[in-house]
Structure formats: C-alpha cells, structure tokens
C-alpha cells in the first residue's frame, strides 16, 4: 500500500491503495465518484473516460502511481451545475438510452471540443469513435457534439 | 446520494393503493400542510403526498409523484409510462417527479422488462390511473364549490369552474380528493385531445445521467459492504482442484471459497479481486458435453439432414407442391452465438439476514430475483425486498437471476452485505447467449413464378423452437411446412433482444429476396402480392400478424426510400413483424470510386400510437444500429467449452463510424401503442444483406458478414449522407 495525493475536480484527496490500482477504481471504490464507469477494463470502450490535465484518458488502464500531481477531472467536476456546453447539448438533444456510457462520451466530447472548438462532422466522428454505445445512440452523440460546439 | 438508504418510502408505499394495476383509493394519511418552499426534495414531497393509486401521488405543493414499476434499461419506459398517467391526469409535466418503484407484486403485475410488452400491457391501466385521479380531483372541487362536476374543467394541474370563476390547483384538492371513492368506470380522453402523449418529452433521468449521479447497480455502495468476484467454470465442466494461495496473498482479499462450481473471492474493493482472480489456479474436468464451434457446425448438418424434427405448422400438401413445382429454390443460413454485452456488466447487491433479504441491483425481472432468493434461503418471498436500480443495458441478459443467485449465496456464506461484480470477461464468458442457429429454406414456384410451397427447418443450439411458425409468409402460401430441431447443449442461452427473430428475420428476408429474384419479381411487389393473398384468403389456422398493417409499412418505406427510382442506388428491402410491431426497412448502397458505400437505412414502423417521438426514434435507430452491428461483426465462438472472444478487443461491437444515416418514419394506423424495444432490430440484417447482393451480386448467408469469404473483397464502406 502507498499513499497518493491527488488533485481531482479542483480538490485535494489522499488515498492509501496499492500502486497498480487503476485510477478508475480509486475514483469509484475509494472516493465515491461513481460517474466514471467500468465496462471493459482494457481501454476499448471509453466508459471510464476522465480528463488528465484536460486531455481525455481511459482511467481503467491508468495506474494511480502514474497520475502524480496531474489534475484529474471527472464527470462530477466537469461543471458546477451540470451546465457545461456538452452537458447542455446532451440534454437538448436528449442523447441517452440506458445512459451508462454517456458520462464517458461527454468527457471525451468535452476534451475534444476544447482542442478543436469548431470541428467538422468527420473530425467529430474520428474523435468519438473510441467510445462504445451498446444502445446505438451514435446519431444523437454526433448531433450533440456538433450542437455543443455552437453553445 | 452516495449510498442509497431507504427512507420511509417503503413504509409509505405499504399503505398506498392496493390491487395490482392499483385503481383503488381509500387511504388517508398524514394531513400536514406543506411548508411554502420553492423546490421540495423528493422525501419532502413524499412525506406530504396523497396517494391516489399504485402509480400516482399528489402533494399539497402540487408536486406529482408518478411511480414507474418496470425496470428501465434504455427503452425509456421510466419516461413514457409517466407520460401516459400525466396525460389522463391533465398534469403539468413540469411538476411531475418520476420514481422507480421497488418490486411490489401486490400493486403491480408484469413488473418486468422483456418482450417489448410493457406498454401494450399497461397502456389501459396507466390511462385509468391518471383519469381516476383527475375524476376525484374534480369531484372534490365540485363538492367544495357546490357546483356540478360536469361544469368543471382541468388543464395543466389546475381545476376551473367558469361560472363562479373559482379555481384551484391539484395540490389544493389533493387531500380531499384522495379520501373520495373511485368510480367503477372512468371516461378516458379522446386521443385527439392529448397534450403530452405524442410530444418529445425528455428522459426523466437526463440530469442525473449527464452529471454522473449514482443510478446504476454498479454504482451502489453501502458502508460495511463487501465486494465479491467469482470464477465460473467452462461450459460442461466442473472443478477438479483449486489452488487459491496466490489469490489469498493479494492485499485487500479477505476470503476465497468454493460454492457450487464457482470460486468466490471476497474483499473490500474491486481491484484486488480482479488481480486475485488472475492468480487463481483452478483445474476443471468434464462434467457433460464440452463443446467447440466446430462441433456445432457438424451438428447443424446432422440435425437438418437426419434428426427427427418437431412439426410446427403444416398447411396444404407440401410434398405435392414441391413435386409439381416449376422451380425450387433452396438456401441455408447460419448465425453464431452472441453475447448480450450490456455496457454495465452483470452485478448485484444482496444482504441476507436471519429471516429476510435485501436485494438491490439491475434486473429485468425483480420478481424472479425475489423468488430465486426465497428458494435459496428457504424463507417466504414476502420477506425479500428488491430495489430496482437503473440498468446499464440488458438486451435480455438481465431476465435471468443467475447473478442474483450468486449474490444471495455469497452474502449468506460470509454473513455480510455484498456486491458481486462481473468483470467484462466474466460477462462475455459467463453464459446465457443468443443461441447459434442454422435454417434450411425451400420454396416451390409454379410456372407463373408464384410461390406455391414454402418449407423452413430450423436447427438450433438450446433454442427450443427456432421458428415463428405463424409469422409471415405463413398464411400467404398454400403449402407450408415449418419444423424445428434442437440440440441441448451445456452452453447456456437466453432471450437476446428480439429472441429468435433477431436472426430468423434476416435469414427469411434474404431468402425471400433470393426467391423473388428467381421468380423475376420486384422484391417489394413480391411481398405485397403474398400479403394481398394472406389478407383476402389467409391459408391455414392461426396467424400472428395483420396483413394490412404489414402492407402499410411496406408501402410507406417504399415511398420514403424512393424504392427502385434511382438506378445509381442499390437497394435492399426487408420487412418483419415481431413483438406486435411492424417494421419495414430499405438499405441504400451507392458505388463511389468503385467501392460500395452503405449510406442510408430507411425505416417505416407501425407501433400504433407513438407515445414519445424522441423515445421511439431512439428505439428504432438503436434497434437498427444493433441489428446491423451484430450482423456485420458479432461472433462468439467456442473452444472446449470456453468462449474464444472475452472482451471488446476481440468481441467486436459496432462503433460510430460504422453507422449509416437512419431515416425513421411511422405509419399512423390508429391502433393502441405497442412496444419498440425489439421490433426494429430483426429486419436490418436482411435489408443490408439484400442491398449488398444488389450492389455486388454476393449473397451473404451467414453472420457475421465480415467473416464470410463472399464479403472479403467487396470493401464495403459505411458513410452517412
């Protein structure tokens, strides 16, 4: 076991876990931040997407020991009131079916739009292709990312 | 709400309405006035609300609480059910709060999600629940104002009497109304007066989903709860020996033990269990059939050629029809096993106590969860509570209670509350798949090219009846023979979104395309001719479908897709009736730079009345994406009782860039609403395969398409627009 001092959603957290524990499980099991989802555990589906210094990463394969002092943002910290442009667009387009993958989709979209504020549809699809949605909400996701870019 | 503790909600419900479908009033409880607050919490609202029936409470604040009994897994029932209640109530939708009801077999029947059956089952009940409460609110106002009920009107949660100028909110009248007796018969609204039904109401859980609130089973945590993961045996095998030394050495693992044919690893968090599971050394030995996919391929041949089949339907004289046929068309179609793979892997929480148990988690069948626990524990079912979380997908996998059984057994064994979590690998390898099936079709054509004989023989691995003998084209062909033959395998199978028809529709609609081609008929006109015959003079006994409604979706999709009008577009047609709903689809392929590009799928659906257009579009589009994804890529193969594909790196699911444009249309048939969770999926594989044939002359008779040799050099691209 080792102690890790983490910066998550602008707050300092200290956890005592094995150093190979993925960030995903630190968030879920140790910090109660369950908006970040477990689905594949091997960086294939994107349900666990969070921001590391603003970039979208798969938290399921990121050992806590390599996070260091980097800033983590989870879906819970994306906005104070749930009103980040991507969240607003997701509400407006009514994207979700089961909803399980959507926090990962939103986090990926938010990081992407920060890098590329006015993307083409092709760029949106290239960026969002790494997130699986088993319900097949892909049409609405691409529509919502395009919408968020305009908010 | 990081932990879900039960407040007084359950106690509150116990004194609420009584019978299943709950239209009975007669309860009087806690008449305290609401403090004047802008926004009340659910708990505050509930503590003041007057219960009208199993679905509906109204608080003096005017807040309306609607309970949604059926599990929500993305089919949007948690939004569409309350819409129906609120419609008949004439409620202000902005004041409606929706709560997931716990399992309550006294109040609700058919509290499950499966078979696209919730809306057709509950449509009348939900309308009555809302209409009865509205009636009582009017009656209470009439009594207080001393005016006739007939002069009172309602709108958006307000009650008006024009003559006296009096008005009141539903909240004002809730207490008085809840104490009045409900009428036997209740007049329902004329659908033309609907204000909520038919409008795009947003998913009631959006805010929670989009901000990452705990909603799903896997999000449930409770102080003192243990975590468990389980090593399950390959199919057809049992444990020979277990060496758990390595697993026990992992920090955070508190116990390892064997139960049934499983090894349970217990700990205080999830990650140590995942590590420990990899260090478990379990030897297995055969305990039945240990099968590989090559065995199934051989079995299919034997089953179709020589096993005794069950006759499912026989009309006319099939032998004579084939003997006298001008032409006979024959083809076989095969599909593999599929995993359900909902994004949220299986999981469940159980807390077994001395003479009771508390179950919490994602299940499509809460009643089965309770029965299973009662049976295992030998205690009355009434002593078991089931709280239904939101389900991160289900697709039929969560109809089973195997994961509930495990949680109950583990909780009992360790005498503690426990959440059992399946890894993705557990979820894909842990069983209950869409069964593998092979179909043999034969069609007899007369000299005019009319189909006068039709034979279907289905061979399935744990499918039971792999046919739907009363579906089209039965009823439209004079001589029909439908048979099925089943192999009982150790590999577990289960309903998978649109059971049987998820593959049968593709096979049949591709085969009918082949027959139409031989008969030199347009594929759409070929179906229409058959349906006109089924309509005018249906052949044989029971038929499950309405020929007129099927004709309706075919004509609509032909019109909306410009069927046959554009010589540069290769179109594939498919139509299917399943789960009470009719869906026709046309897939469009265009050749660009020498390569076929799948650009669009047009769908026409007759599900009767559309409750929520957004939700309906979601289900139709989602079903098409699902149907296309699995037809293209889905494949689960076996080697000695073990699935070869164990995670999404090898078990391929469709992604955003593999989805064409999908245009969705509805036929306003005027019927009561039917379900949409499943029916849009079955036709898709056929539409896509028929378009691929039209564009490339390659007939795809097996799934997944990408693994067929006919598909390899086609270089199909998928692009929108």
Q: What percent of the residues of chain B sit in helical stretches (DSSP H or I)?
A: 25-40%
Main interface by residue count:
A-B, 59 and 66 residues
What amount of the residues of chain B lies in strands? 15-25%
Assign an overall shape of chain A: globular
- Helix count of chain A? 5
Instruction: Give me the oligomer status.
Output: heterodimer
Question: Order of strands side by side in the largest beta sheet of chain B?
Answer: 10-11-8-18-15-16-17
- Distance between the ends of chain B: 44 Å
Helix residue percentage of chain A: 25-40%
Q: Give the terminus-to-terminus CA distance of chain A.
A: 45 Å
Radius of gyration of chain A (Å): 15 Å
Query: Largest sheet of chain A, described in full?
Result: 5 strands, mixed
pLDDT below 50 for ≥5 consecutive residues: which ranges of chain A? none
What is the 3D form of chain B?
globular
Query: What class would the helix/strand composition of chain B place it in?
Result: alpha+beta
Q: Say how many strands of chain A there are.
A: 5
What is the number of helical segments of chain B per DSSP (H or I, 4+ residues)? 18
Overview of this protein structure:
The complex is a heterodimer of chains A (about 150) and B (about 725). Chain A has about 150 residues and is an alpha+beta fold. Chain A is about 35% helix and about 15% strand. Chain A contains 5 helices and 5 strands. A 5-stranded mixed beta sheet of chain A has the order 2-1-5-3-4, with helices on both faces. The longest helix of chain A is centred in the C-terminal third of the chain and has 14 residues, at about 100-115. The termini of chain A are far apart. The mean pLDDT of chain A is about 100. Chain B has 18 helices and 28 strands. In chain B, strand 2 and strand 3 (about 65-70) form a beta hairpin. In chain B, about 30% of the residues lie in helices and about 25% in strands. Residues about 1-40 of chain B have low confidence and may be disordered. In chain B, helix 17 (about 615-630) packs across helix 18 (about 680-695). The longest helix of chain B is centred in the N-terminal third of the chain and has 28 residues, at about 120-145. Chain B has about 725 residues and is an alpha+beta fold. A 7-stranded mixed beta sheet of chain B has the order 10-11-8-18-15-16-17, with helices on both faces. The chains are: A alpha+beta (about 150), B alpha+beta (about 725). The interface between A and B is large, with 59 and 66 residues.
């Amino acid at each position: 076991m080792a102690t890790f001092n983490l910066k998550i959603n602008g707050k300092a957290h200290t956890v005592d876990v094995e150093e190979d524990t993925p960030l995903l499980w630190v968030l879920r099991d140790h910090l109660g931040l369950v908006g970040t989802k477990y689905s594949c555990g091997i960086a294939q589906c994107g349900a666990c997407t969070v921001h590391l210094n603003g970039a979208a990463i798969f938290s399921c394969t990121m050992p806590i020991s390599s996070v260091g002092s980097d800033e983590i943002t989870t879906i819970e910290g994306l906005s104070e009131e749930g009103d980040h442009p991507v969240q607003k667009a997701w509400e407006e387009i009514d994207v979700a079916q089961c909803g399980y993958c959507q926090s990962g989709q939103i986090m990926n979209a938010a990081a992407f739009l920060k890098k590329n504020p006015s993307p083409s549809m092709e760029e949106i699809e290239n960026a969002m292709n790494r997130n699986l949605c088993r319900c097949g909400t892909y049409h609405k996701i691409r529509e919502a990312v395009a919408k968020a870019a305009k908010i | 709400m990081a932990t879900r503790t039960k407040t007084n909600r359950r106690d509150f419900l116990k004194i609420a309405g009584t019978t299943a479908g709950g239209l009975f009033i007669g309860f009087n409880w806690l008449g305290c006035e609401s403090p004047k607050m802008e926004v009340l919490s659910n708990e505050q609202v509930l503590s003041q609300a007057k219960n009208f029936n199993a679905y509906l409470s109204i608080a003096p604040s005017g807040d309306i609480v609607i309970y949604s009994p059926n599990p929500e897994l993305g089919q949007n029932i948690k939004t569409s059910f309350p819409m129906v209640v609120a419609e008949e109530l004439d409620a202000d939708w902005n004041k409606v709060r929706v709560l997931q009801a716990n399992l309550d077999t006294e109040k609700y029947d058919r509290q499950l999600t499966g078979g696209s059956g919730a809306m057709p089952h509950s449509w009348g009940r939900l309308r009555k629940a809302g209409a009865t409460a509205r009636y009582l609110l009017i009656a209470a106002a009439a009594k207080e104002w001393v005016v006739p009920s007939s002069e009172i009107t309602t709108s958006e949660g307000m009650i008006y009497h024009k003559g006296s100028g009096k008005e009141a909110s539903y909240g004002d009248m809730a207490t008085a109304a809840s104490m009045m007796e409900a009428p036997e018969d209740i007049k329902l609204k004329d659908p033309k007066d609907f204000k909520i039904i038919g409008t795009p109401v947003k998913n009631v859980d959006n805010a929670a989903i989009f901000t990452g609130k705990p909603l799903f089973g896997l999000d449930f945590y409770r102080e003192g709860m243990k975590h468990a993961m389980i090593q399950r045996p390959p199919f057809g095998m049992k444990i020979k020996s277990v060496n758990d030394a390595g697993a026990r050495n992992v920090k955070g693992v508190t116990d390892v033990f064997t139960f049934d044919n499983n090894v349970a690893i217990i700990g205080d968090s999830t990650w140590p269990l995942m590590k420990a599971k990899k260090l478990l050394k379990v030897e297995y030995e055969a305990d039945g059939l240990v099968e590989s996919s090559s065995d199934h391929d051989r079995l299919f041949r034997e089953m179709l050629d020589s096993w005794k089949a069950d006759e499912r339907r026989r009309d006319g004289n099939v032998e004579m029809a084939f003997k006298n046929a001008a032409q006979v068309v024959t083809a076989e179609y095969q599909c593999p096993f599929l995993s359900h793979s909902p994004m949220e892997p299986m999981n469940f929480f159980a807390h077994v106590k001395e003479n009771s148990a508390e179950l919490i988690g994602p299940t499509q069948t809460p009643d089965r969860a309770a029965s299973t626990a009662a049976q295992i524990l030998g205690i009355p079912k009434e002593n078991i509570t089931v709280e239904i979380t939101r389900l991160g997908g289900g697709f039929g996998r969560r109809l089973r209670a195997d994961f509930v059984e495990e949680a109950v057994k583990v909780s009992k064994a360790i005498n503690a509350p426990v959440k059992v979590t399946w890894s993705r690998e557990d979820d894909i390898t842990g069983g209950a798949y869409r069964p593998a099936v092979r179909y043999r079709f034969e069609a007899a054509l007369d000299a005019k090219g009319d189909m006068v004989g039709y034979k279907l023989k289905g061979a399935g691995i744990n499918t039971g009846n792999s046919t739907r003998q009363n579906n089209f084209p039965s009823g439209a062909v004079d001589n029909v023979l439908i048979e099925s033959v089943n192999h009982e395998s150790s590999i577990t199978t289960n309903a998978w979104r649109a059971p049987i028809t998820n593959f049968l529709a593709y096979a049949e609609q591709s085969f009918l395309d082949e027959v139409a081609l031989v008969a030199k008929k347009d594929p759409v006109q070929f179906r229409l001719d058959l349906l006109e015959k089924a309509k005018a003079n249906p052949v044989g006994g029971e038929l499950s479908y309405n020929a007129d409604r099927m004709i309706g979706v075919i004509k609509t999709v032909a019109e909306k897709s410009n069927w046959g009008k554009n010589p540069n577009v290769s179109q594939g047609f498919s139509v299917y009736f399943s789960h009470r709903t009719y869906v026709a689809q046309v897939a469009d392929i265009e050749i660009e730079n020498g390569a076929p590009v799948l650009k669009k799928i047009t769908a026409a659906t007759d599900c009767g009345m559309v409750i929520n257009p957004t939700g309906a579009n979601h289900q139709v589009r989602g079903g098409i994406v699902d149907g296309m994804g699995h037809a293209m890529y889905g494949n689960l193969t076996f080697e000695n009782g073990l699935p070869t594909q164990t995670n999404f790196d090898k078990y391929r699911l469709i992604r955003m860039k593999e989805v064409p444009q999908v245009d969705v249309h509805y036929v306003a048939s005027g019927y009561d609403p039917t379900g949409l969770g499943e029916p849009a999926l079955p036709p898709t594989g056929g539409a896509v395969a028929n378009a691929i044939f039209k564009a490339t002359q390659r007939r795809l008779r097996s799934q997944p398409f990408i693994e067929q040799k006919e598909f390899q050099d086609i270089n199909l691209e998928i692009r929108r627009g």
